[in-house]
Every structure is written in C-alpha cells, then in structure tokens.
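Project channel, design review

CF: Before we commit to the Geodermatophilus dictyosporus constructs, I'd like one complete example in the thread so the newer folks can see what an input/output pair looks like. Taking ABC-2 type transport system ATP-binding protein.
RD: sounds good, go ahead.
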Amino acid sequence: MRLRPRSGARATLGALTALLLAGTVLVSLPATAHAAEDVGTEEAWIPSGSGADAVELDTTLYVPASATADAPAPAVVLAHGFGGSKQSVADDAADLAGRGYVVMTYSARGFGASTGQIGLDDPRYEVADLSTLIDVLAERDDVLRDGDGDPRVGVAGASYGGALSLLGAAYDDRVDAIAPQITWNSLTAALFPSQTGTVEAATPAATPQDPDAGVYKRLWAGLFFGVGSVPTGGLLGQLGGGGEATDEDGEDGAGDGGSGGGAAAAPASVPDLPFDPSTVDPAAVEQALTCGRFRADICAAYQDAAATGTLTPEIAAVLDRSSPAGVLDRITAPTLLVQGTEDSLFGLGQADANARGIAATGTEVKVVWYAGGHDSQASERETAELRDLVAGWFDWHLRDGDDPARGEDPGTGFWFPAPTGLGSGLGSVQGGSQSVVAGAYPGLDDGAAAERTELAVDGPTQPVVTPAGGTPAAITTVPGLGSIASALAGTAVEIPGQFAAFSTEPLAEAVEVVGTPAVDLAVASPTGSATLFAKLYDVGPDGTQTLPGGLVAPLALTGLSADPTAPTEVTVTLPGIVHRFEAGHTMRVVVSSTDQAFALPAESTVYSVALAGADNGGTALAVPTVEGQAQADGGTSRWWWLLAAVVALGLLGALAGWLWGRRRRRVTSVVEPDGEDVPLRFEGVTKAYKDGFVAVRDLSFEVRRGQVLGLLGPNGAGKTTSLRMLMGLIRPTEGRISVFGHAAGPGAPVLSRLGSFVEGTGLMPHLSGRDNLTLYWAATGRPAEDAHMEEAIEVAGLGAAIDRPVRRYSQGMRQRVAIAQAMLGLPDLLVLDEPTNGLDPPQIHAMREVLRSYAATGRTVIVSSHLLSEIEQTCTHVVVMAKGQKIAQGTVEDIVGTGGAVLVGLSDPADADRAAAVLSGLPGVTVEHTDEGLVADLGDRTTRAAALQALVAADVAVDQFTPRRRLEDAFLALVGEN
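CF: and here is what came back for ABC-2 type transport system ATP-binding protein:
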C-alpha cells in the first residue's frame, strides 16, 4: 500500500496546491496493484449516526471475483488522510482487492461528498462511523466472519486515517489487525510540543512532553484549518441548497447510488440539482464561512489557539479526545506502526509512544520507519516495499491458517532506513537506498534497551535574544516542503544573536544516530519562562551545516531562574532522526529563540543558555544507536519540483516579514509562603474586554484550607468569569490569582491540583460512565493508580449505572458522573459550578454531605450556585458578588446575621402574644409567629439591645434572642431585589 499521506488534491496541481490544501508535497507514483483477479466495485451511500449528528457516507466497495458466499474473504477498511476522500486511496484499494481482500473505502464525514462536519477522529463521530461500516461488512456473505455481526477485518490509513485505525481498534473489538501510518499518539503533544523532562522509557525514540505547556505549531495548524475551512458540495447541500457534490479530486463523489452491503441510496441532503441560494439557511452559511466543515468546538479551539498561541484546558480537551494515547491499553489487534523520518508534523516520538502503549498489554507490535513522511516523498522502491509489508501483515493476521495466500509470519522486528549523511533537501530522500532490520524494537516487552552513546559537548554560557513579536525568525522547515532552506542554500537560516551553539570535537569515527538524542541545558530568563528551539546539526570539515530532517525540538520552559549565575537545569530531548555523522564531522547543538513555524512570544527579552554541569567538566550528548542487518541495495530516487522551488523562494521572502499574533508570556512567580494554608487567593483581579465591558472589577478574597466557599451573585455578577480565570481558561486584565501560593494561568502546573466541573458535562454518550472517567484520567497523563477511581465513583453514588452507556443516563446521573470526574485524583481544590442541577432532593442531600466530608479531609471546595438554600446548608463561607464586584464576604453565619431579624424564644409560650405586642410597639418593628418561634424584624430604627431591654422591662421571660435571617434575605438586602 502507498504509505505517503494523500491530501485529496491531485499532485499534478504542483507543490503549491499540496502545501495549501494538505501540508504535504508528494507526487503520484504509478500504482503497482497486484491484479491477480478481476475486481468489481459497488458504490453506496451508508447512513451513520443519529439525530443532528446523522450523516451519509459516500463509499466504494472493492470486491474480488474470488470472494463469494462459499469462499468468503477477509475485509479491509481504508481510511484517507486529512483533506482527502475515498478517491485518495483508490489505488491502494485496488491493490489489496487484487490480493483477494474485500476492501471498503469511504469519504469521512465532512470530506469529499459525504455529509456532516469534521470531528478530528472524535470517538463519538468518526470512530462510530467506522463501526457502522464494519456493521455493513458483517452483513455480507462474501466477507469472512468470526461470529454473528463480527467480520474478519483490518483497518489501515495514513495520518488522519492512521489515527482512526488506532482509535477504531480501541473502541471496536471486532477489528482484527491494523496498519496505522505516519500518524499521531497525542494531538496535544503534536500541535503543542515541549520536549523537556527525563525520558524513562528504554525505546530509541521516546520523547517527553510537558503536560501543562507547549509551543504552538502555528503553521501546520493553520494549514489543517485552511483545508477544513473550504466548504464542499456536500456541505453546501446540507446548508439547504443543491449542487452536484464532488470530492477534492474533482471527480464525481456521488457514485451511482448502489445498494451494496445494505447501504442507502444517495442522500436527499446532497441533491443532484442546480444550486438555489434562496434555500440556504443564513445561520448555517455564517457557521460554514467561519468554521468551514469543522464542528463548532474544534473551530473555537483553533481560533483560541491561533489568537493566543497558548495551550488551555479547553483546547487540550478537544485534542485529547481525538488522541489514541488515552486508549492504547484497549488495543488487542496486532499492530503494524509505520512512521516517517522526515516529518515535522508527527515525529518518530509519536510512533514510539504508540508502540509502548500498545505493547504494554501484550499486543503484538511491529515498528517500521521509512525515509519520508509529511515533509518528503518515499522512493518508488520503498513505496512498493511498504505496500508489501502492510499486505503481508494483513495476510498473516486476517487469513485462516490453511489459506495458501497467508504467507510467512512477519514477526515483530524493527525496520528503519539505513542512516546516511545526506541532507533532507527539497526532493531528496535520506537513506532511501537501503533498509536495516533489527530483531525487535528496542525497549518493548522488557526487551533490551536502546543503546546510547555519550559524546562530550562544549561551549560557554551564551546570551540568546528573542525579538519583539518573534520577527525576524529562524527558518528551518516549511510544512510539506521539508527542510527547504537546506535544499536551497545548504543550511537552515539561523538569525545571529538569537541562538547558542555547543559542539563536539570532530568525530574520530562515524556515529549512526537512530532515535532521539538528549542533552542537559542550563537556562535563565528574566521572566522565569522561555520559548526555545533545540536542534542537532551535522557540520562538515568545511563548515557546511546539515539539519537532519529539518527537524527542531520546541521547548516551553517555566519556573526558570532569573539569575544567569544560578540557571535552572533542564533535560532536553532533540528531534528523532536517522542520520550518519561521518568521521571528521562535528555534532552541533543549537538552541534558538525563534522558528517561523511556531507561535512566538510578543515581548523581547534575553535568555542565558549554557550546558548543564559546565562547572564540573561539562555535559554529554546522549545519542541512541540500533544494531541491525542491512537489506539488499535498491535504487535511490531524487525528485525535484521546479514549481515547488519557485513557491519556496516566494515563501522565504514572505516569511521573513511574517508578523505573528500577540501572545502573553507565561510568568512563574515566587511561591507565597502561606500557599498551602491559602489554597486560593484573588488579589485585585479585573477582567475587561476590548469593547470596554468590565466583567470583574478589583476582586479580592481568599479561601482557607478546609473551607466550603459559596460564590453567590445574580446573573452577570461575574461568577463564571472569575471561575474561568481561576481555571486558566482566560487571563485576567489586572491582578493576580494564586493557587496554593503559585500564580494561576493557562498551563500553570499547579492547576493539576485542581478538579473542576464548569459549564456542562462534556461526556461521550456512547461510552459508559466508567469509560468516560477512564478516558478523562488517561488524558491527564498521570498514573492510573493515582485516579482513586472507585472512591470517586462511590462518592458520587453512581452504583451499577457506572457501566451503562451515558446516553441512557438521566440528567442527574450525568451530573453525578461529571462530579466524579472532577473528583478524580482527589484534588486539593475542587471547583463546582451548579453541582446540584438535575439532582432530586435525596441526591442533593447526599451531595451536600459529600462536599462537607470532602472539605473535612483538609481539602477545599468552591461552589457556584443559584440555589441559595443549598449554599446556606452546604457552605461554611460565602462571597457575594454584584456587577463584577465583591460586596460581602464572610461565614454564612456572618452574612445571615447582619440585619434586623431576630428569633425570640420564650420560657412560657403563653407570653407570645404579650411579647409580640411589646415588640410591635417599638419604632419600625414588625412581628411574625412562626413554627420556630417569634420572629421580629427590627428594621434599621431599633437595635437588638433595645428590643431585648423592652422585653425584660415588660417582665417577659426570654430564653433565646438570636439573629434570624435566611441567606436569601441577606442576599437580597445586599444586592437589591433588582
């Protein structure tokens, strides 16, 4: 199969079209389908989903003549890359069908002629669509089955389709084998990378990721959103008009409406009629123009990321749910992982993480690296070889043992391109002439760890300037064009004054690097944070520099020392590469402050960068090596695209003056000494918007450990805005919010001590409550044993319902799952917004006891609610807000007790009428008989002391004389009934 990602745009449109529409520059190699037999095709529209999420999928089924009811064949579902359609994998489908497989191809929702919106491989939508297609295959007599409704099926795809195959195998246990290619493990780590921290894994390309911060991969993300923002014929049909639907290849995507596999006829939402503007829904058009084919939450996440360049919990939630990282332990289907060595989008570390996660549960995993990826094409020889590897994987794992076509066991070895010293210039292929085969991927299944060679590097402490707005910026890789600068000038473009460099001595013998090197740095920053980019250059004896793969390692550093004489030491993992550093060459570690492909800080400053341990003899560059046996030589392909080179020159000129959006600096402040005793402190916090509206003004309060704080106020008081600032979802305009003494803000590490439930449950309806909780915790990257899952489930009172699908839950049950989710990990600070919505009275009572008990353990709870009676009975302390300002703060007793209402208890109930007459005779006093006793509202003219004296003087025996006012009364008195 072709292992290069296909964008859906014809390669003959040239590199410019590929760059704009898919972020890849590829040429279409001739198909080498094994036409062992005749293959027929069946076109069909297949409905999937329900309600507002229902779609019609445009499919083509390839059926070999040998597949019959008497001799059923295994099936393969082929998923296309982002921006593509079923036409993108047509050649691969014909090849597999020629080998005897029933092959299903389709255009994913939001692509080609299929209807619906893009969900980024969301388990609720795209993964559910895959299960629908498997259902269709299960109904066919010519497809081999393992049981009723269970076809023998494999799934393969590149990039977008590769992630779908991983997620599909995790969520649908009918998938029997998968072959994901050049895809991601974590979309969060891919689009917001920060390769800092110690690597614990023994595999050669293990890459750490800061879970709380990252450097936004702005150019790649922009290209993706650009592809999905262009409405297609299918989308126009959904907006209310007609229009003949075509996919991005310009070919008719409607097919003939065939009914193969029980599919529906062509959907009415894509009629084959002239477009009629009068039928278009204006609201739908506005949504389409703003977000194109993306779902609204994805569109909002992109717009937030593009505007701020900051990883927020909201953005992470969108990306994490489309990431296989959290569900790899579910995959039991044998997995062939294929990754490219020239890929600035999804590097080798993403495949490494997938391999480790899948193999950890004993699932069979084979890892293949090839010379290519999103930035460069593979050679013809390697393309054919990889196609055979994928087909061989399916032959062994999908065919019966007595099937003569089953072939040999492909095993679980490790393939990688033979390292060479060639650069990765435009059109060249590094290591494309040979492959190296090792017995196993090092470090998996308790196998031998990858070997690492330590090489001494040297260099002084150096200042590194980051310019205002990040301009001018270094140029290393242009998405889809690879190391463009290396192709045109022999070296990447580094800006003088913006980088520090550290080098080895000339190598006495060649060193072949296979994986991710690592080095320890010492960094200081005046602001306590830094955005840097680490690279490993190959420097020849004549000074010529080559940047292998054109790859860089972004670093989002926080908590740095501001003193250059006492810098903070950090471990940095460099990009995963396969490269041979020849004898006499030098390895050069470069740490720069800018890179045109990423979001950069707006403010200028100067960092101090040095090697860690320089005062104690220096540090070492640890480089991984893998021993293996080289395969037979093959031809080396070198492709040059004149149009791409012209476009690249234009891009270089344009990128030199690129102005990035402003981005606030992450600032880590000094820890407050009483931080552990004061879990939350607001100090002069103001949030103003560009239109002049001030949502919160000069808000100051603090919450002590063990308190249950109620946040009260009418609509528009600023409660939700305050909670969103606390959680790091938005930034305050002025002031400071500290959590356990640390400054709180987007990506702040201290927010890991906070559990929250704000603005909706966000649960996946087709999963059980337990699965929702498991996925949520897995997305945090923390150990499963730290979740305290059963404790949270018990606290929320979910019972046996925890294992039922969420779509069958009542609103109250959904609310309780969300509260259990907030309690996972037993956070020290729990923030709940309207936690009793949808709960019945017994459940509200139970929730009240839960929150009190939770705070009694020394933890702190903050509750925002409009149910004042619940706040009164649940909370120990209250902050009352109105019009964005705090108007009162104190214990519930303090707030309730400030006012003129008192409860009068009498020794002799018969004195009630006489006491009422005495009190009613005082200025402004009104009296009411209640079940609790006599309640007198003293107003503002009679003091409590005067009232008590009047009763004593009248010889009324008083047993009790206490302030008596409901929280609701106090609230209305404080904020006014209007």
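RD: helpful, thanks. The chain has four domains: 11-181+233-279+379-412, 191-230+292-305+413-626+643-662, 680-894, 898-975.
CF: The longest helix spans residues 380-398.
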